[in-house]
Amino acid sequence: MKKAIIAAACLMFSVNALSDAPLKSTYKKLVDKEGNISLPDDYRENWAFLGSYFVEGAPAEGSDKPSFDVHTVYTQPKAAKYYRKHGKFPDGAVILKDVNATKTEVLTTGVARYEGDPKVTFAMVKNTKDRFADNKAWGEGWGWALFTPGNPESQTTDWKGEGFNNCHACHLPVKDQDWVYKQGYKSVIGE
């Protein structure tokens, strides 16, 4: 009986360890030894969709009407599952946000706004082990990256940079939510 309990405990431990394996591979597959983050090529097809939301911006040049971008967010399926169970993202979790322009069209159902041309993709990589302390693209428990369309190399050198590279300023309002706008992901992570 004692051997059966020990065997069951070992099996449960090994199954749990295996279930986290894809997240542990983040630092082998998507982050190099210096902390440079790469964009995975299969996330739109194989990762968990967290949510989409529209963001109103300043009017385009020559227009008095506001512009809108659509933000579409993904994570690894195991990261979403881990979050639902533990209420936080695990080490190695990656959150990817595609930002696209929108197109507006009058349809029989009303005025529709839908995804247009890609603008940028943002990435956050959860870092609970204080890796890359000397790399300014890493801070507050995350690695931060910006990718432009067609370029798999990150453009972020400092997460407190300028313009689109100022991840800090955009995420400061959700510092107490582990820097993540979780309110947009209710259907997947239950927040």
Overview of this structure, please?
The chain is of the alpha+beta class and 191 residues long. It has a single domain, classed as Cytochrome P460 (Chalcone isomerase). It has seven helices and six strands, in the order ααααββαββββαα. The protein has helices spanning 2-19, 21-24, 26-29, 43-46, 77-86, 167-171, 186-189; strands spanning 48-57, 67-75, 94-107, 110-126, 138-139, 142-147. A six-stranded antiparallel sheet has the order 1-2-3-4-6-5. It is globular and about 50 Å long.
What kind of sheet is the major sheet? 6 strands, antiparallel
What series of H and E elements makes up the topology? HHHHEEHEEEEHH
The number of distinct structural domains comes to 1
- From the helix content, strand content and strand pairing, which structural class follows? alpha+beta
Query: Strand percentage, roughly?
Result: 25-35%
Largest sheet, order of strands side by side?
1-2-3-4-6-5
Gyration radius (Cα, Å) is: 19 Å
- Per the principal axes of the C-alpha atoms, what is the gross shape? globular
Q: What is the CATH H-level superfamily?
A: Cytochrome P460
Let me know the average pLDDT. 84
Signal peptide: 1-19
Domain Cytochrome P460: 40-181
Protein name: Cytochrome P460 domain-containing protein
Keywords: Signal
